[in-house]
Amino acid sequence: xxxxxxxxxxxxxxxxxxxxxxxxxxxxxxxxxxxxxxxxxxxxxxxxxxxxxxxxxxxxxxxxxxxxxxxxxxxxxxxxxxxxxxxxxxxxxxxxxxxxxxxxxxxxxxxxxxxxxxxxxxxxxxxxxxxxxxxxxxxxxxxxxxxxxxxxxxxxxxxxxxxxxxxxxxxxxxxxxxxxxxxxxxxxxxxxxxxxxxxxxxxxxxxxxxxxxxxxxxxxxxxxxxxxxxxxxxxxxxxxxxxxxxxxxxxxxxxxxxxxxxxxxxxxxxxxxxxxxxxxxxxxxxxxxxxxxxxxxxxxxxxxxxxxxxxxxxxxxxxxxxxxxxxxxxxxxxxxxxxxxxxxxxxxxxxxxxxxxxxxxxxxxxxxxxxxxxxxxxxxxxxxxxxxxxxxxxxxxxxxxxxxxxxxxxxxxxxxxxxxxxxxxxxxxxxxxxxxxxxxxxxxxxxxxxxxxxxxxxxxxxxxxxxxxxxxxxxxxxxxxxxxxxxxxxxxxxxxxxxxxxxxxxxxxxxxxxxxxxxxxxxxxxxxxxxxxxxxxxxxxxxxxxxxxxxxxxxxxxxxxxxxxxxxxxxxxxxxxxxxxxxxxxxxxxxxxxxxxxxxxxxxxxxxxxxxxxxxxxxxxxxxxxxxxxxxxxxxxxxxxxxxxxxxxxxxxxxxxxxxxxxxxxxxxxxxxxxxxxxxxxxxxxxxxxxxxxxxxxxxxxxxxxxxxxxxxxxxxxxxxxxxxxxxxxxxxxxxxxxxxxxxxxxxxxxxxxxxxxxxxxxxxxxxxxxxxxxxxxxxxxxxxxxxxxxxxxxxxxxxxxxxxxxxxxxxxxxxxxxxxxxxxxxxxxxxxxxxxxxxxxxxxxxxxxxxxxxxxxxxxxxxxxxxxxxxxxxxxxxxxxxxxxxxxxxxxxxxxxxxxxxxxxxxxxxxxxxxxxxxxxxxxxxxxxxxxxxxxxxxxxxxxxxxxxxxxxxxxxxxxxxxxxxxxxxxxxxxxxxxxxxxxxxxxxxxxxxxxxxxxxxxxxxxxxxxxxxxxxxxxxxxxxxxxxxxxxxxxxxxxxxxxxxxxxxxxxxxxxxxxxxxxxx
Length: 1067
Fold this sequence. Notes:
Layout: H1 41-46, H2 91-97, E1 101-112, E2 117-125, E3 131-137, E4 151-155, E5 164-167, E6 173-176, E7 182-183, H3 184-189, H4 194-200, H5 210-228, H6 233-245, H7 247-255, H8 260-282, E8 287-288, E9 290-291, E10 298-313, E11 318-330, E12 333-342, H9 352-368, H10 370-373, E13 380-383, E14 388-391, H11 396-413, H12 431-435, H13 441-451, H14 460-467, H15 473-496, H16 501-504, H17 507-512, E15 516-530, E16 536-544, E17 560-565, E18 572-580, E19 583-588, H18 594-598, E20 603-607, H19 616-624, H20 629-638, H21 660-665, E21 675-677, E22 682-686, H22 692-705, E23 710-714, H23 717-728, E24 734-736, H24 752-758, H25 762-769, E25 773-777, H26 785-788, E26 791-796, H27 804-811, E27 814-821, H28 832-836, H29 844-860, H30 867-877, E28 885-889, E29 898-899, E30 904-905, H31 907-922, E31 930-934, H32 937-949, E32 956-959, H33 960-965, E33 970-976, H34 992-995, H35 1003-1009, E34 1013-1021, H36 1023-1026, H37 1030-1038, E35 1044-1046, H38 1049-1066
Parallel strand pairs: 3-5, 7-11, 9-14, 12-13, 22-27, 23-25, 23-26, 24-25, 26-27, 28-34, 28-35, 31-32, 31-33, 33-34
Antiparallel strand pairs: 1-2, 1-4, 2-3, 4-6, 8-10, 10-11, 11-12, 13-14, 15-16, 15-20, 16-19, 17-18, 17-20, 18-19, 21-22, 29-30
């Protein structure tokens, strides 16, 4: 390797002073003391002068005690041997105070010519007012998109005498937003597809498969063999069997469709692979390997330093987990090397491009490990299946390119106000090889559509994506809408749980905030154990050395936490299993290295954010958009509002429960409950009835008796336990996903946790899991059982409490659906973006209600004469907030009052009111939830007679005074004001004092009945007459134009025909 190929890695803990270089040559063609006009074009073509030459910051001087590479073979380059091992050092000092962190103020210039580009920024130190310039050249000049306020970390280069940082080829690194840690695997995935790498940050991959399962088994087995020094095939096969028999692993094999024979074959194969590695490689005296550098011929393993090392590097904005960290003896020196295991076959030509991302992965590990072990000179890849071992010395240029990819990923995932991520154009991407089977290709297509690129400027891949996409404009609009909703919620979660506090905020400050326990020391050794979910781990106890005001009360048992030392961030993940006095015990993923136990370290335990439940909804949304017959069927109902015949009943007497099952199974039956049914899928049941539990249980039992498989989905574990406990007394053939709660121990034998323990293989697990009823919550829909089974029915309890995207995952595995819910409930975890966009249905029940209403309108409106009348009905029953109160003005139609012996009445308004009553009830409103108010007793009597003839006796009708006295609330209130006179009537010539004697002047009564409506207030009257009264004059001043609808003669005639026709139908 050439000398210039290696770039010394700067220390995150100490910034060495660099001697001032000689004064710049007056003939220099490059000067960093730039003006606002930027760098001259000559500077671009010629580069830096000798006077402002590159200054490479070396972290480890030859006599530096922190140097990782040691000249003596006896001195181990581990953390224990480093002077970082002291209590005075802090994570904040290493990763914040000891770094060159600056904030971008503005971009000064971007100079471009045929040969090069130079971008110059004005930057200011994060912790002071120190001003600098940042010049980016070569590949780094692509970072021309940083906006003011962007945080950067400059590594490997110092400012010159002109206070200017120059980052260029082979000289330094620029890390954009270093506090946002990107996983190493996401960075190297960009070698495959930059767009998919960006989207994979939000959306998980396309599910489990046999290749992934084989890799997990082989990986766990080889780590176990290296830790316990196992090489015997029988012993390794026994360990492989133990790995595969663990409940979680057995469920994974069941979910991907493996058989017991295939599992047995895999165990034998993995044992042979690992035995070969341990015998020939790990225990061998010397190991030959294929290397990029022919000068290196052999080495041998000396010691295993750790497996599954968790490493977070805020210096480079990266995080990852190293399969194994090993100590090797090579060229007479002891060296620390990251070792990554892969199961892919490297001999196939198809794998050569993918192999490059493996090399990039281990190369980045060498960069990240520099803080802990010093400069890492080699990285190692081992392909288990074909026994291929290769050594890869990290190259500076390759590392710079990888950091650039990391910066591009930061730009791509930088969301703003819930917008879609920025995605680079798919140049060089083969549609058939990569896009055709990609699970996120519809999002790519959506972004291409939004850019409106002219056809003659489209790339070939863009044309292929657009040509092969089968989604309609409405489906794309739905996809975009819900992507923005989920993105907005993801941003909210990230702001609430900010992992950067682990290194930017002192532990004592975090402890005072109640999210951390600091000043801890290790007590005793790690003890292997298995937690309640059968996951293996290691128990480790810590003792607090200093009494804190928060003590240990800030954290709770079962909290998911990150363990950090005073020199490393998040060295391990764990779960709190016990808290007592000043001690806290964690279940850790991996045992702590011996250096942590012997070194002088202090520790902090922080509660961190796990994967948000909202994140899984990306996958569910993608499942709805799949190119499959099942997804197409669901989109037709949920998005396209496919028309179906709808069977709707009038009221809810609560007595005909026996016909419920028959109604569900046979759409031709008529059921007297507020219930709607589409023949190809959905039954919608309102749950504002006291007998809902009886309805639910009778329907469930009836389905089981008719040998139907049922998936029950509840919004909470407690709700699910309540349903299954009620079922348990009648039928014990059911399964609960997960474990039982402490309050319902009787359900424990029916849980997947207990049944998977009893299974001895995939066949027995399949038999145990083949129950007619399966119960789960929305958060457990990723269980492997849903990869295998399909259900006849899905019953979603409290569907009004579930976000639509959370339910899509269940819809894909069921044929028909029963939704129980109340459309007037607000779901838990309401998205703030929905508050800004009232047109988004914020729960699945409302979404399907709008679907049901859309279907119902097609049959209801056919019975209304005239387009104008139909438009009026749509306006009146609209659920939009701005139309919650609507005034229908009858001043232009013949709807005049008449005087009886004792009171005033208005027959025309009664007929209009009946048309609206028909409309609300036939569209699904329970009659008992509808109220009618009139100010005059004569009008009330006419209304009651009309309702009796229509068998709508449950509708409440009262005068204004009576309605306000009984304190009853309704979902919809219709008020017919009755008073309606001709414009030439003497009434309009009477004095104000004479008008005050009327009942309509009683403002107090009028304003009392309006709030009694939960959803809709429909006001009916003659505006020209009513405005003569002061309360109505004020009312018309505050109502908007969209809330006042003047009734035309055409609409009036259409409504009268509709009301008379409905009267004939009812009679």
